[in-house]
Amino acid sequence: MPATLPLPPQLEDDPPQATRPQAALPLPPTPLQLARAFVGVALAGIGGGIPAHTRRAMLNRGWLDNAEFAEAFTLAQLTPGPNGVNLAAMVGARLGGKRGALASTLGVLTPGLIAMTAVTVLLLGLPGGLPPALQSALRGAACAALAVMLTMVGPIVRVGWNLKAGRLPIGAAVTLLTFVALGVLRLDLLPVLVVLVGAGLVAHRPAKRTHDNA
Question: pTM for the full model?
Answer without folding.
Answer: 0.66
